[in-house]
Amino acid sequence: MERNTWSKLLFALPVSTALLLGACGGDSSEEGESADSGSDSNGEIYNYEDFPQTVTNDTEPTGEGVLKVGYASDTPFEGTLNWAFYQGNPDSVMMEYFDEPVFTIDDDLQYTNDGAMTFEVDEDNRQVTFTLREGIEWHDGEPVTIDDYVASYEVIGHPDYDGVRGADDGFTLIEGYNEYKAGEADEISGIEVIDDHTAVFTYTELSPSLTAGGFWAYVFPEHYYEGVEVADMSSAPQTRENPIGIGPYKVDSITSGESIVYTKNENYWRGEPNLDGVEVSVIAPSSIANAVETGDVHLVEGFPADQFPDVADMEGVEWLSQIEGSYTYLGFKLGEWDAENSRVDYKPEEMKMGDKELRRAMWHAIDNDAIGERFYNGLRWKATSLITPYHANWHNSEIDVPDYDPEEANRILDEAGYEDTDGDGLRENPDGEPLEIQFASMSGGDIAEPLANYYIQSWAEVGLDVSLTNGRLIEFNTFYDMVENDDPSIDIYQGAWSVGTDVDPAGLYGPDASFNYPRYASEESTELLQQGVSEEAFDVDRRIEIYNDWQELMAEEIPVIPTLYRAEVTPVNENVVNYGLDIGYNEENLLYNLGLSENE
Q1: Helices (H), 26-143
Q2: Angle subtended at Cα 522 by Cα 518 and Cα 527, rounded to the nearest 5 degrees
Q3: pLDDT score at 168
């Protein structure tokens, strides 16, 4: 989800991937409604490609006013407001207004040199020279130097770092990084600072991932955290209460978990912003459409797509849409995280969901086509692969995956030994013991519960006893705490990922990726993931071949079931100027150019 428009100017987690998304639902359906009953008001099926991607208001902005943004969520933002430490999407939404990446991307999701920093690759010497533009300041007036970029690597790689980044090639391939991370060295030997604006990084090898999101994309205010131990940085006031950045707006005040008020950064390096300020507020999905209609907000981040049919004709609003680099999925717990060795402990033979034939049958039992059409009116649609159509050149649309076929699900379960031995309508496991599957799903909009119930009902129709973990939907932050910590009350879970610019999925499914929540790791998968970032993968055709093989392997092994791809629909007040969802660098739609055509 990394677009170089104003609202998506972010590069996230390892492999520049993975933002945790909010709850998977957000609909006005009634509880218990099946996918076939439909939740839409008019039955129309929409295609995101039929919407504009940029507002049509082409008047000059006034240069004044406060933009009011609603973030649709029933979950407060956590308030970890530094790119090195945050984990959840709510925090990233809040950060994108005051801190920005130093790199830009093109429409093929490759880094460009249009941002605050440029780079030059020397393939012969396995080096990259990073050059920071002059005249860039932190919000407290201190100049940004190349040391602030180096500090990002030193903090994230520090042995006491308590965040989740630093395991991808952009870090681990730097000479001396792994020794530094292990506490065996006081500095990263492969990083040489030349002057205040220049540094040379030497890598053990160059990977195609580096220029597609592998370079860390943010500077770290080293001076601002002076005296703070790395272990304390994520909870420090500099992160939680008074964050600073280099973006066109700076934090003025924070209402914990609810809203942030930003004021203009008059010294922004690209030029003076077109607004006096911005206000971003968390608004419940059930109230967000009304906030748009009454003019309480000018635009919405994360508008629930399922609500669109009911408000498509809202006056004074223009609707934009774009494919998201996101997908929802059903994950099966197949092992645990080995914290001591920072690796996945894949042990399917010990796990309830370890039989891939059981997982295959559960995939056959659900109808994601119907869910996309009935719950989301086509704005979400059946997913097949773990590499999404957002990465158009890499997505394998021909992959063979289990179709909706309850009869086939029943046949597979019968042959695998999952039989109803006591006549109660529910299958026992092959040992004749009760098979009680605990399913964790997030709370969210109105659709969250009926969607979870649909899956449970679908599995019940093929004789599987599935029930909600703790008997209820789980709040976003609690949900991911439980999933991350391999809570034994979770056998399967419904999650969502937003992917980054680089197609490399190792940050989510690699053996040393903490975000590998299913805890799946096989020799074949690991080998393919390693090949995908090797020097042979500089040949694009070869890299496509590697990732096609990996996509097919995942469809065979089924550590997760991809359920839905998605498009965002964004309501924008007709008074907003220079806003767009286009992918790739577009100077006109950068945040500092965003404005209002009339004062309010």
Answers
A1: 89-95
A2: 125
A3: 85
Query: What pLDDT was estimated at residue 600?
Result: 53
The dihedral through the CA atoms of 411, 414, 418, 422 has a sign that is: positive
Cβ(131)–Cβ(200) below 8 Å: no
Cβ-based neighbours of 567, under 8 Å, separated by 6 or more: 48, 305, 321, 322, 323, 324, 379, 380
d(Cα 577, Cα 589) in Å, to the nearest integer? 9
Do 496 and 329 meet the contact criterion of CB atoms below 8 Å apart?
yes
User: Which string of DSSP letters, residue by residue, matches 341-409?
Assistant: TTEEEE-GGGSTT--HHHHHHHHHT--HHHHHHHHHTTSEEE---SS-TTSTTT--TT-----S-HHHH
In 3D, which of 526, 582, 588, 596 has the Cα closest to residue 557?
A: 526
> 10 Å Cβ neighbour count for 526?
16
Pair of tokens at residue 590: 């950068």
Helices (H), 50-139: 89-95
Asked whether 507 and 168 are in contact (CB, 8 A), the reply is yes
| Strand bridging mode 465-468 / 436-441 | parallel
- What is the mean pLDDT of each successive set of 10 residues along the chain, which is 600 residues long? 32 36 39 34 83 95 97 92 93 96 90 96 96 97 98 98 90 97 97 98 94 94 98 98 98 97 97 98 95 96 92 95 95 97 96 98 97 93 96 92 98 98 96 97 88 97 98 93 97 92 91 95 97 90 96 98 96 97 87 86
Tell me how far apart the alpha carbons of residues 342 and 327 are, in angstroms, rounded to a whole number.
26
- In whole angstroms, give the CA distance from residue 41 to residue 28: 10
